């Protein structure tokens, strides 16, 4: 069972600062590198670099607002990321159920062997 995962997308959301930025942008509706840096423990320059990563994978889009760029979350791309996560979770649930069945079969065999020895 193979689940198609966009590695660039998951690399982008794998960073806790970027996830927090997405949370802030979703709750505020939009934001600039400056406004985000005021709410995060990183510099404006670091925020700008994180925004480039999020923009490259399509999670945010920028529009020019005066001298700064206003960033908004692309909700369709975010929904795609959530769907991928759900698919990965379902795949792992299936794998874990198979492992559990194998482990239970092994244990039943050991229990049967143990009973025969008594």
Q: What oligomeric assembly is this protein in? A: single chain
Shape: elongated
Task: Tell how many strands the DSSP assignment holds.
Answer: 2
- Rg, rounded, reads 23 Å
Output the structural class.
Answer: mainly alpha
Helix segment count? 5
Range of helix content:
55-70%
What is the mean pLDDT? 90
String of helices and strands: HHHHEEH
The share of residues in extended strands comes to 5-15%
Spans of 5+ residues with little confidence (pLDDT < 50)?
A: none
* Biggest sheet record: 2 strands, antiparallel
Our measurement of the CA-to-CA distance between the termini, rounded to an integer number of angstroms, reads 42 Å
The order of strands across the largest sheet is: 1-2
Question: Would you write up a description of this structure?
Answer:
The protein has helices at 7-13, 16-28, 33-37, 44-56, 75-117; strands at residues 60-65, 68-73. 15% of the residues are buried. It has five helices and two strands, in the order H-H-H-H-E-E-H. It has a two-stranded antiparallel sheet.
